[in-house]
Design goal:
The structure is a homodimer. In chain A, helix 2 crosses helix 6, helix 4 packs parallel to helix 5 and helix 9 runs parallel beside helix 10. The model of chain A has no long low-confidence stretch (mean pLDDT about 95). Chain A is built from 14 helices and 23 strands. By secondary structure, chain A is α/β, with parallel strands linked by helices. Chain A has a seven-stranded mixed β-sheet with strand order 15-17-18-13-12-19-20, sandwiched between helices. A five-stranded mixed β-sheet of chain A has the order 21-6-5-22-23, with no helix packed on it. In chain A, strands 9-8-7-10-11 form a five-stranded parallel β-sheet, with helices on both faces. Chain A is globular, with a radius of gyration of 24 Å. Chains A and B meet through strand 5, strand 6, helix 14, strand 20 and strand 21 of A and strand 5, strand 6, helix 14, strand 20 and strand 21 of B.
Amino acid sequence: MHITGQMLIGKKAVFGLAGNIKATDPSTNQEIEPVFGYATSTEVEQACGLAEQAFDTYRNTTLEQRARFLEAIAAGILDLGPALIERAAQETGLPVARLEGERGRTVNQLRLFAKVVRDGHWLAATIDAALPDRAPSRPDLRLQKIALGPVAVFGASNFPLAFSVAGGDTASALAAGCPVVVKAHNAHLGTSELVGRVIQRAVADYNLPEGVFSMLIGAGSQVGQQLVSHPAIKAVGFTGSRTGGLALVHTASQRKEPIPVYAEMSSINPVFLLEHALVTQGEQLARNFIDSLTLGAGQFCTNPGLVIAIESEASQAFLHQAAQALEDKHASTMLTPGIHQAYVKGSSRLADIAGLRLAGKGQAAGSPCAAQAMLSVCSGSTFLNTPALQEEIFGPSSIAILCKDFTEVLQVAASLEGQLTATVHATSEDHAQARKLLPVLERKAGRILFNGFPTGVEVAHAMVHGGPFPATSDSRTTSVGATAIERFLRPVCYQGIPAALLPTALQDDNPWQVTRMIDGKLTPA
Amino acid sequence: MHITGQMLIGKKAVFGLAGNIKATDPSTNQEIEPVFGYATSTEVEQACGLAEQAFDTYRNTTLEQRARFLEAIAAGILDLGPALIERAAQETGLPVARLEGERGRTVNQLRLFAKVVRDGHWLAATIDAALPDRAPSRPDLRLQKIALGPVAVFGASNFPLAFSVAGGDTASALAAGCPVVVKAHNAHLGTSELVGRVIQRAVADYNLPEGVFSMLIGAGSQVGQQLVSHPAIKAVGFTGSRTGGLALVHTASQRKEPIPVYAEMSSINPVFLLEHALVTQGEQLARNFIDSLTLGAGQFCTNPGLVIAIESEASQAFLHQAAQALEDKHASTMLTPGIHQAYVKGSSRLADIAGLRLAGKGQAAGSPCAAQAMLSVCSGSTFLNTPALQEEIFGPSSIAILCKDFTEVLQVAASLEGQLTATVHATSEDHAQARKLLPVLERKAGRILFNGFPTGVEVAHAMVHGGPFPATSDSRTTSVGATAIERFLRPVCYQGIPAALLPTALQDDNPWQVTRMIDGKLTPA
């Protein structure tokens, strides 16, 4: 498939005339052909207008139609073959193996949502039978969830496939019955066009209204803001920086009709190393920690940016071993020159913080956007007194906190802002302490894991990729996993509706064979 | 039980020293004893601090403990006997029979949430088994929902029992495991104290931490704002005016950690009368409509403030019959002098609107806060061109819109702001039109009802008392019915947690016997 630099607005491909941009190869800082055009406000308007027009038809497709549409997108992405991986590798500096893995995840994610749609549990179909003989009589009441409306999705820089044009937000919004308008991320525009055209073709192949999908190109501060301000848009999915996320939250709250924004923003993902785990597995933990820290140049939302232990022989040994493991780590190319600059700035700012010292570093950078990994160390009291240490440094930088005792460990845990993840390494000898730590971590994080590392987010039913502010703008949801569909739904009650007019999921004979809550009891089909 | 004028802060009763207020009997505009004291900022701080301290213990009570606690509150309210009803009648001007019914609803609501808690479906317990042999291996993943944190609840003026101190927001928050700090509504402070003391005693009787419940007294602009700003508070439940609701939404969004606000604010609850229904049942519809409009002096969130029909002989007859039925309606006492003044102002403003005329009115007021009911009428085009006609007039005032054809009916429907309810009267001959109207109404309202009137909100599993902005500040939820508990929960994923440390609902042997989603399948205990 040829990359043209065009946007996709409904069934059309349009070259935007509001400005120009080329993708950059971050390993060389060289521009890559072709030129992409930025959307004018008319084009944003067109995409939103088409989404609005498509909404009623699309939300009323059958479960089977919608599931097949999602599966067709998955198949289309695979059909792109090596061309997609090559373009993505060139635009992002990510290794081919990683991108192939990410493509697998993207495809599986679309297929999972196809299953979720077919299953129909998300409809929350509920029936309370009429009680005509009760005084006062009770009418027939039925509830189902319906789609919120067209959704604006912002592609993430760090997952050019799995959290971009056909990524988790798009898949879950389409699954819910919402048309999607994507703002492609400028860091991987060619990848975006290739994937966008797959969705555009699936829309046509399945005879869906063209407005089910559009993809715009432009600056977040212009096209992004206009998109979130548009009355047709009823929810927003975003993964990126805290600044970017909060700007969208602000815009959405200022609208005449405020709308929900699901922004996944920043997290430093604390890892607690309890004493017996450190004593018995310290060396292995040090190696695994450094592997997790430097994976993908540290460009994961769940990168372990904080390691907390009690000051002891074992924790000193861990620190030493981690520093040693770090020495061997090559500097990997980051996604964009901008991300690299922010990393250099953020990690070098640590040198100015009193009480913090460098514990070790990776190999020096050998190419323009390569990031030298680093591990710093400070005391519990320094951390507690330095709020700046809670700011995410996106990239392979982490801080070890050595506390004077377990009470201080609990204080550090309690002082943390909201996180996507919190990790505990513990043997059974550590369980008494773990038991004290767990309730604190439950209040801080969306996912708590034991004896592992937070990088690696499984796409499953029980996954939560979310967490209290500022990890996300809405702790009540997840952006990864089957329940991500719930973000784009709202409940509607149908009272006394004639049988002939009832939505399919609520009809007496249950044509879609979905599990329903009937008179307070979950009732399989 | 003696009414003292004190607030309830944890296990203490405290007379607030920041100001004084007495309740008013709206039927006479006379003050009622005793004097109530307003909270100082220290007292707000104390209530929030106690709630924070109580949170971990309370959220970790067993399902059975929490269910019994809710049932004890229900029993305690009944034990108050006639004293509660008498005080509420005096403070609100509502008839005794209505208040007895409301007490029944309040008690049933607490008992429903006790059932909901025991059932455990709200935990959304989910287990994805580890797949150690997959490459890469999948860890054991388990999800449950946990309580958000302490909740601020604002009592509503129009439901002194069912949406006040022990009302729907309090019941659902306590069910979710959240401590509650109530700001009592100044319109029924004695009623609030009586009910508040019941909850306070139940907290003590069940050996719960005292901070599980506090009740403060003060101005919304002071105590209310301070409460919503407090870092310990993690969500807000509110029923009241759009101005009041939006002020809380604004404050909550400006916090260092923004929190969700569930504000149920305003709705004019359109009722569509389709032609055949009008022709065959017009007279009965007219009587029922006027009964619904004037019920409780029109002081229901679901009061039918708009009636839409096609201009025809049948709709003219309906209008005439409605005007006649209205003539017989006594002016009923409204809840407070302030609400009555707002009604007089709002309904008299209608006289200035070009194209709108008075169609009929109820009997003139005979006491200070009594509201004269009124029905106005205008054309479809007047409505479409006059946004002010969408503003709620809280009380027994409604506007009939006579459209030139069904296309204009659809235009009126599409022009509506978000609503709590939308009603359609239709016979089977009207179904073709109803089918066109339904998708429009689905996008406008939280509850769609046929051949009934929207006043009367059943507390059931399938109820939705919510809807798109500005009906509420969050269309994804309901404030009435079993699923109201979901407002105060967020999901947490537990990855690879040792069996000994797993939350009860996620342990392999399922000690609470809750239905769980296991490997993508709903699995009863």
